[in-house]
Amino acid sequence: MEGGVRGSIWEERGPNRQTAKPQEEREGRREGGRIRKRRALRERERDLAASSRRAGTSYRTMKLWFGFYSLLILLLLGAVWAQRARPRPRPRPTRRPPPPRPEPKEPTDFPPPILGPPSIFPDCPRECFCPSSYPNALYCESRNIRQIPIIPSRTHYLYLQNNYIDEVTAEPFKNATELKWINLDNNRIRRVERQVFEKLPNLLFLYMERNNLKEVPNDLPSSLEQLRLSHNQITKIPIGVFNKMEQLALLDLHHNKLSDSDLGKNIFRGLRNLVQLNLAHNILRKMPSNVPSNIYQLFLDKNNIEEIPTDYFKDFHNLAFIRLSYNQLSDKGVPKKVFNVSTLLDLHLAHNRLSTVPFFNTHLEQLYLNNNDIEAINGTEICPLPVMLMNQYDDHILPKLRYLRLDGNHLSPPVPMDIIMCFRHLRSIVI
User: Most CB within 10 Å of its CB: which of 242, 250, 354, 424?
Assistant: First the structure.
């Protein structure tokens, strides 16, 4: 019974189980497919995430490498640029000085006159300055003036230097009879009208340096004390021009074109009080004749003088300074005792052709013999007194030489002992 029942149950269940089994298998297969799909989906998501991570990592890596290579390239370029030979900077072109302005030829070429400030004096020329603190002075210098203005009668001191004046006429000085000082330096003066300065009885100083004068102005006043005419083109001194100038103390004619023939025999007659005569830088070949014997200073340097007459300085009783440098003097043209002048203090004989030291007086204090042809110096020969008896003389009798210049010759140290023994007052010697 039990067996039958069980068999019936089995038999009843048998077909159901057989029917349920394929369904389960199908559902299992479906479930497995879904599971596989989900797994595949998850795996794909993982793969995508991994790929994304790998891509991000690669991008970052690539970005880092790109930055590294860029920096490396920049560094290499900088190193290469630094090693390149840099072109030297071109020197800036030096500015040439502007060409000198040509000398004015016509009045239109001159710059306009510079007017002075207003003045309290109604007679003050517009081109000049009349300070109230100096009512007797008229300042007209450096104002591009071409003609001398009318000079007020109150003027004692007239300054007209550094202008373009080419002529001195009488009209401007018509009422200026009180003038004592006239400065006309550095103009273009070629001509001086006759008797212009003769009508100025109080004139003491006349300066006309650096002009274009070709002769000494005529009719100069007898009151004149200083006449300065250097740096002109003077080749002529009118006869008798100095005859009445007894007060003249200084005559400066240096740097002109005076020759021996231009200095007449009596050209300096009348200059009884002359102190200084300056004839340097001319074309003289001989010593000027009839120089006033009372002169103190005689300047003849930078000429072509070759010889000095034996007794040339015999009658000069006040002569203290002689300048004969830059000439053509040789032993043959210089007498041995020509400079034995008791009043002589300063003697310049540099840049000549002397081979021996000329004899000089005990009163000489400065002697310039540099740049000659001297090969030896003997103190016994040039000493004005016997060297061996020096200790027997009083100090005021000993030679007064203090400065001796011998450089530029054929000498070498040491200084000979007899020079030291003779010239006890010597303070400086240059060899």
Answer: 242
